[in-house]
């Protein structure tokens, strides 16, 4: 019996990670293979592969979206590996197992290759940035929920008394203050994990401390912190600096202390001073300019920006374009700019929910399998997991992607115009109930408008597409 082990991960660690793991497991079992799948998601590593399972495996499948650490790569050294981006795994699941031998390559701990000479990119700027976002998510989710709870307590009449001499703080103030810590530390964590994704543990502490420094406006004497721009620049700079620093050979006496003593000390010293005198003030100035621009741009430009962000979010349903718009919107949360992330909360609901509703209204436009999957797409999609829309888009790329993108763009423009704000990632359609999306009435109005537009576009565009397809088939016959 063929034995397979697999690892799945994605930048957010929420949807793709588990959907792809399930798909690999089901497909492998249907072929009579023994399979074990490890997920590296938002909850951490689950179903971790044992050394015995890896040793006995004939092939390793890596469906990854945020790369692998050096220690992960070492686990699969000299194994036959098939690697593909996690965003592509669902698209190719039916053919993934067709030629494992031909599509695999013996892995070395330094790189992975697919086939004879094609190197698969498991590293790259966006991969590193999304690794930082993935680490920051729990800080924002936990912090955002606590702030929402504190706000709800005050709205229901509970006191919001701060800490002062001779006065005990109220529970609402304490909960809100704890929540604020999540937003305070999300940027240092983002910078630290960007560096960690590039060069592993030696880069983590210096990147965390230096990014924290860059966002301490009191210490730097700046009007604002460096924000996510500082996290990106510092995380990448320290990550690549440490990556090449690790290659230095110091001899047997000092080589053993290089990663945990020399590298962190030297890196922190160099980048600490550099950030205090140059990078921190420069990034803080840029961040102030960006925030001022976003807050003061005319309504017409804001609508155009909302359209672009909304269209990007809906275009490739969890792909690189979607992630770029998501990263921009999410990163502004640390600066308490919530309306761009409000677009995310609305638009990411639309493609799967609209596809499901369209199957109910016009079932003749869809296959039996698509109709059967509609309830699953609707329910999962309502929790801001756009991936259930992918099978519908693969079946009819031109009409479905066009409908999603156009509806997403228009809805994004309406959402930014109505100033819908989302303070943290949540559970989609229920976010207003948790106090994470407001005003609740504009949120639900935007979702309703978006769904009407998206469903209408799907029915119109796919109807035209199927009609032309039938005409071409008749002509060919």
Write up this protein.
This protein is α/β, with parallel strands linked by helices and 477 residues long. It folds into three domains: 117 residues, 3-Layer(aba) Sandwich (Rossmann fold); 172 residues, no CATH class; 178 residues, no CATH class. Strand 1, helix 1 and strand 2 form a beta-alpha-beta unit. The radius of gyration is 24 Å and the shape is globular. About 3% of the residues have low confidence.
* Strand residue content: 5-15%
- Shape type: globular
Instruction: Please count the beta strands (DSSP E, at least 2 residues each).
Output: 10
Helix content: 55-70%
For the sheet with most strands, the description reads: 6 strands, mixed
User: Whole-number average pLDDT?
Assistant: 87
Give the count of helical stretches.
Answer: 20
Compute the number of structural domains.
3
Descriptors:
6-stranded mixed beta sheet, 10 strands, 477 residues, two-stranded antiparallel ribbon, alpha/beta, Rossmann fold, single chain, 3 domains
Summarize the structure.
The chain has 477 residues and is of the alpha/beta class. It has 20 helices and ten strands. Mean pLDDT is 87; it is low at 110-122.
Q: Which helices and strands, and how do they pair?
A:
Layout lengths: L2 E7 L6 H15 L3 E8 L2 E3 L4 H6 L2 E6 L5 H6 L4 E6 H4 L15 E2 L6 E2 L3 E2 L5 H31 L15 H29 L4 H11 L2 H4 L6 H19 L6 H4 L2 H39 L2 H17 L4 H12 L7 H9 L2 H12 L6 H5 L1 H8 L8 H6 L1 H21 L3 E2 L14 E2 L1 H37 L1
Parallel strand pairs: 1-2, 1-4, 4-5
Antiparallel strand pairs: 2-3, 5-6, 7-8, 9-10
Helix pairs in contact: 5-6, 5-13, 6-7, 6-9, 7-9, 7-11, 9-11, 12-13, 12-14, 12-19, 13-14, 14-19, 15-17, 15-20, 19-20
